[in-house]
């Protein structure tokens, strides 16, 4: 046993004590600071509870105050849903130009089958879908988990006619985005 | 009936005399044994349940959580509810298990810890059996528990149980040495193995203060080694949840599981009270040299509170270790014992023997 290994032996002991003490200080600090507890007391704080922005509660069709939504019934959400939670029933209506147009009749959402993956919200081309922050989904009747997302009497939001932007000069860089007339 | 919270021997003597006056000595003896047994049984259950509660609360606070808080105020009755649940659960019998040993194992474990309680001095005169070899007895009895663990592991007819029991066996046998040597250091200081004498010898100061650095080293050695001996984290390889589901008590359910669980916590209590008794003065109040006024004030606090205060402090230390340190690997565990704790302990014991021989400690 050389001198070096003896020194190593004792330095190991002191290093171990130092690092263990560091850990003890962290837990000891939390122990004497109960104000730092992060747990939410759920049923008690129900009135004040605010879920965070990105919480995936359930899928909703966003309605404006004048009972309009942006869904045009394209069915992309239905195609994208991996477990068939969404069914789109479309109808046709005649618009002011006298042309027949596809409108949504029923946007059916089976909450009982939804895995909250968010593919429908992501893939919606007109940003009609969103996640609500509602999470108390328990019901006594399974039928209640099948929801019609478009409210009765709701209509598709009519975008003000924007004149089409002049076609961009041909060799534009790919990164530049064409302004979306919908927004 | 005379009652003095500073000295329970008057009460116990009065009970003894009352019984002897009313029945034959044999029956008086049997009645006394029954009373002591019942008192310990109730004490065991209450302390066990509330240690589980304390553990959950301490753990929760250390992890920034709230812990049990639904059953009763601050969740005080949570563990009682748990016990009722466990009592009502089915006792599953394992196919091809060794029926006799499988059923006996939880009792061996619980009896071992039950026997160890008997020798603990709780307060002046509150001491079931005062052996003249108290320290030795405690060590001997507390190591019976590992027999129960090995039997439980072997008889369950399960890989997890057997591996857990084997680990536990290797661990307890190794760490027994360090526990013994750490206790021997105080035996050298006080010159006695009798726990009541050890407590009396600390009337003018606790051994951890009187014995300089070697006593402090011995105290921490005892804490580490006894934590390993009672199979608690960070040395809980015997029931390493992540790899062995629950180790030796994987196949147990209902009240038999509760026995293992309870005895684990009682072992922690016994180890903590042993540490408090031999190193921190047991029920002896904190006395500093010749500070008469200070010593008077300290004497005013009843010994039973001193005893429980110190024990709870040591229990907190053990819990603090458990919820801070990650579990050791089996090779690290044996390395720690054979390469670090044992050599340091041997040198420390030698040093203490030398100190005592030269009289270089506070007498």
Question: Can you give a write-up of this model?
Answer:
The complex is a heterodimer of chains A (about 180) and B (about 375). Chain A has helices at about 5-30, 75-80, 120-125, and strands at about 60, 70, 85-95, 100-110, 130, 145-150, 155. By secondary structure, chain A is of the alpha+beta class. Chain A has 2 domains: about 5-35; about 60-155, Alpha-Beta Plaits. Chain A has a 3-stranded antiparallel sheet with strand order 3-4-6, with no helix packed on it. Chain A has a two-stranded antiparallel ribbon with strand order 1-5. A two-stranded parallel ribbon of chain A has the order 2-7. Chain A is elongated and about 95 Å long. The mean pLDDT of chain A is about 80. Chain B is mostly helical. Chain B has one domain (about 90-360). Chain B is built from 15 helices and no strands. Chain B has helices at about 10-20, 25-60, 80-90, 100-120, 135-140, 145-155, 160-190, 195-200, 205-210, 210-230, 240-245, 255-280, 290-300, 305-320, 330-360. In chain B, helix 3 packs across helix 12 and helix 7 (about 160-190) packs antiparallel against helix 10. Classes of the chains: A alpha+beta (about 180), B mainly alpha (about 375). The interface between A and B is medium-sized, with 15 and 14 residues.
């Amino acid at each position: 046993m050389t001198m070096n290994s003896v020194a190593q032996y004792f330095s190991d002991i002191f290093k171990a004590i130092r690092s263990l003490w560091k850990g003890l200080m962290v837990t000891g600090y939390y122990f004497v600071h109960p104000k730092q507890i992060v747990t939410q007391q759920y049923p008690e704080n129900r009135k004040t509870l605010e879920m965070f922005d990105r919480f995936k509660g359930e899928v909703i069709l966003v309605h404006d105050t004048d009972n309009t939504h942006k869904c045009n019934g394209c069915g992309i959400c239905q195609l994208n849903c991996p477990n068939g939670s969404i069914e789109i029933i479309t109808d046709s209506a005649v618009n002011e130009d006298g042309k027949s147009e596809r409108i949504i009749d029923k946007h059916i959402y089976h909450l009982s089958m939804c895995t909250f993956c968010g593919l429908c919200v992501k893939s919606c081309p007109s940003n009609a879908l969103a996640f609500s922050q509602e999470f108390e989904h328990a019901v006594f009747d399974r039928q209640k988990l099948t929801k019609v997302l478009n409210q009765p009497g709701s209509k598709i939001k009519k975008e003000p006619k924007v004149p089409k932007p002049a076609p961009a000069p041909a060799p534009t860089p790919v990164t530049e985005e064409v302004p979306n007339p919908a927004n | 009936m005379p009652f003095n919270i500073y000295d329970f021997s008057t009460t116990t003597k009065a009970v003894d005399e009352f019984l002897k006056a009313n029945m034959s000595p044999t029956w008086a003896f049997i009645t006394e044994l029954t009373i002591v047994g019942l008192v310990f049984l109730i004490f065991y259950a209450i302390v066990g349940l509330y240690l589980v509660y304390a553990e959950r609360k301490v753990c929760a606070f250390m992890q920034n959580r709230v812990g049990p808080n639904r059953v009763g105020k601050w969740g005080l009755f949570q563990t009682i509810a748990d016990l009722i649940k466990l009592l009502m659960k089915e006792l599953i019998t394992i196919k091809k298990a060794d029926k006799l040993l499988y059923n006996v194992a939880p009792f061996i474990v619980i009896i071992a810890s039950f026997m160890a309680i008997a020798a603990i001095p709780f307060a002046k005169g509150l001491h079931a059996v005062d052996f003249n070899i108290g320290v030795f007895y405690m060590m001997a009895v507390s190591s019976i528990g590992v027999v129960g663990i090995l039997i439980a592991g072997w008889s369950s007819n399960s890989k997890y149980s057997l591996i857990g029991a084997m680990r536990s066996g290797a661990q307890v046998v190794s760490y027994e040495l360090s526990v013994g040597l750490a206790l021997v250091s105080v035996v050298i200081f006080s010159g006695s193995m009798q726990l009541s004498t050890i407590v009396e010898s600390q009337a003018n100061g606790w051994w951890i203060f009187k014995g300089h650095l070697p006593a402090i080293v011995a105290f921490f050695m005892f804490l580490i080694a006894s934590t390993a001996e009672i199979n608690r984290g960070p040395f809980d390889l015997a029931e390493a949840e992540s790899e062995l589901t629950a180790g030796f008590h994987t196949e147990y359910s209902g009240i038999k599981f509760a026995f293992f669980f309870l005895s684990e916590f009682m072992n922690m209590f016994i180890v903590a009270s042993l540490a408090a008794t031999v190193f921190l003065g047991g029920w002896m109040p904190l006395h500093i040299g010749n500070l008469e006024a200070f010593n008077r004030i300290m004497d005013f606090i009843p010994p039973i509170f001193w005893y429980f205060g110190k024990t709870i402090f040591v229990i907190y230390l053990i819990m603090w270790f458990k919820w801070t340190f990650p579990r050791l690997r089996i090779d690290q565990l044996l390395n720690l014992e054979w390469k670090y704790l044992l050599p340091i302990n041997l040198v420390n014991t030698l040093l203490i023997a030398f100190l005592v021989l030269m009289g270089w400690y506070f007498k």
